[in-house]
Amino acid sequence: MVLSVVQGCEEASSSVVSSVFASRYVQDPPPRYKLPEKSIPKEAAYQIVHDELLLDGIPRLNLASFVTTWMEPECDKLMAEAINKNFVDMDEYPVTTELQNRCVNMIARLFNAPSTDLTRQAVGVGTVGSSEAMMLAGLAFKKKWQNKRKSQGKPFDKPNIVTGANVQVCWEKFSRYFEVELKEVKLREGYYVMDPQKAVEMVDENTICVAAILGSTLNGEFEDVKLLNTLLTQKNKRTGWDTPIHVDAASGGFVAPFLYPDLEWDFRLPLVKSINVSGHKYGLVYAGIGWAIWRSKEELPEELIFHINYLGGDEPTFTLNFSKGSSQIVAQYYQFLRMGFEGYKKVMSNCMESARLLREGLEKTGRFQIISKEKGVPVVAFAFKGNDSKNSAFRLSKALRNYGWIVPAYSMPANAENVTVLRVVVREDFGRQLVEKLLFHIGLALKEVTEAPSGVPRIRFTVEMKPDANEINGDEGILHIPAAKVQWKHDKPETEGTQVPIMGGKTKGVC
């Protein structure tokens, strides 16, 4: 079953792939959905795929995505050199494994993991993205909670997680795939992140963790993890529970340490037991790398770790998949080595400056209300002012595509669904020049959206059909069609009579 269908009707009607310039090498076009019977020259295969990909959007103009779209050529070269290495084969590629371990330790210390002893290895793993990292952390919470409930002789079949309704879809996937109830704190207009007070009220003895978001997908805002830690600590003391906190720092994990070092959201808070972060977002690596970091070894149940030896030596593994490429691991280590704390701070500061310029430009139009906060990840979320904000937002998003920009429009979750937002994710490659160009195109698109006529006027008239008096058999007649000309100034319509001969007793055309 193919889940995603985005092709047009003109493609659906064709069973072959057009060769275009590749016709210099091949005469018969290859089938679209069937494996070709014969091989074709490498030049032809390249040209066919290359030509089809021309119709994709331009990644740098895709302002819907948090994912990195530019890296330095030197890093591209390293990734190409490592592209044929299967990371899971640690015995065969020990240096690549060592690079992952270095990255885990760097991130753990960036997130203020308790141990400051450089000889002690941090606990964490590289993943294919933050979704996998979050699910691994969730599985650790579930297993640890179940083990405790079993030892106490209590039921362990109804685990739940408390989080806000603003979470990314990976949390809903985890809930459904691994049978954990997702208890969501509803949003409200003007407050688009999880309310810590309401979250703690929803915690019960079956709650395996409370998940806080550092950088909401909806508007980039940081949730108050410190307040959550304080309130949850108080409840744990009253109830005797030990409900922990997980921080989903997919977007903000590589922003907060550099721009807001005094913000307490990480392992400085005692109840924070694990953190996930995306290397392919503000970690500045191409798509395909995430990280799960645990506070200590005690937070990761040993029974979740598998040990294999059929690839060489003993190799521990804790992932949802098995094989994966090494390129992204190498790229992440390159970025840490190349950028250092200073470099990441400069990049994040530049992103925030671009976000500021965009925010001010939007406010100057007088048409928008800024939904995002100044303190958060470099995201500018904004909504139209007025009653027609929903339709205007979707029309503006569509109009901007004519200029190559992808700026998503979406409705907020339940209890705030009447608010429709447009969102721009500011990445490293979205500098001042592109900000100014986007603002210029938004100005043009606004005129298209607001000045376009609401619709084509509909004109109704009555057609009277009667036989020609000169014809005895009635097989021929005249169709009388009044012609109407309508003036936009609402003048009285002028009507003219028009006669169209009808042959054979049946209409031969469509009027």
Walk me through this protein's architecture.
With 511 residues, the protein is of the alpha/beta class. Helix content is 33%, strand content 16%. A seven-stranded mixed β-sheet has the order 1-7-6-5-4-2-3, with helices on both faces. Mean pLDDT is 87; it is low at 495-511. The protein is globular. The protein has twelve helices and 16 strands. The chain has helices at 9-12, 42-53, 73-81, 94-110, 130-151, 169-177, 196-202, 225-239, 256-259, 327-364, 389-401, 432-451, and strands at 123-127, 160-164, 181-185, 207-213, 245-248, 272-278, 290-294, 306-308, 315-317, 368-370, 379-384, 409-411, 420-425, 464-467, 477-485, 494-502. Helix 6 links the parallel strand 2 and strand 3.
Radius of gyration from the alpha-carbon trace, in angstroms: 30 Å
Helical content (DSSP H or I, runs of 4+): 25-40%
**Proportion of strand residues:** 15-25%
Q: Would you tell me the structural class of the helices and strands?
A: alpha/beta
| Main β-sheet description | 7 strands, mixed
Strand adjacency order, main sheet: 1-7-6-5-4-2-3
How many beta-strand segments?
Answer: 16
**Any idea what the shape is?**
globular
Structure described in brief:
By secondary structure, the protein is an alpha/beta fold. The chain has helices at residues 9-12, 42-53, 73-81, 94-110, 130-151, 169-177, 196-202, 225-239, 256-259, 327-364, 389-401, 432-451, and strands spanning 123-127, 160-164, 181-185, 207-213, 245-248, 272-278, 290-294, 306-308, 315-317, 368-370, 379-384, 409-411, 420-425, 464-467, 477-485, 494-502. Mean pLDDT is 87; it is low at 495-511.
